[in-house]
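TA notes, week 10

Several of you asked for a full example with nothing omitted. So below is the full record: structure tokens for the whole chain, then the designed sequence directly under it. When grading your own attempts, check the secondary structure regions first.
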């Protein structure tokens, strides 16, 4: 597994690329702040999500069935219900608990 470069390594690579570009005769233009690259900066950005027709989906049930058939089957757990007794609390007339009684279901 390849290690990702650190930020300092990326900065050095970028600085080397800029320096080599300038040595080859390249030129960097300083653009004033607030200048936009769009024709009319006052207009809103165009929405690109809703101006295309809905794309049709291709049904692939045979491919999904083939994938499911290759998947290993998980063993179903054997669950048995145990008849556990249920705890019932008996209260007096004033709502105070008197005792606990276990009843079979």
């Amino acid at each position: 597994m390849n290690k990702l470069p650190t930020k300092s390594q990326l900065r050095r690579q970028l600085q080397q690329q800029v320096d080599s570009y300038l040595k080859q005769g390249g030129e960097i233009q300083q653009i004033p702040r607030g200048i936009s690259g769009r024709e009319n900066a006052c207009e809103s950005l165009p929405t690109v999500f809703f101006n295309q027709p809905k794309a049709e989906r291709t049904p692939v049930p045979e491919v999904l069935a083939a994938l499911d058939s290759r998947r290993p089957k998980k063993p179903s757990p054997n669950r048995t219900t145990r008849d556990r007794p249920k705890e019932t609390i008996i209260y007096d007339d004033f709502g105070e608990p008197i005792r606990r009684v276990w009843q079979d279901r």
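The first strand starts at residue 86 and ends at 91. Use that as a sanity check on your answer.
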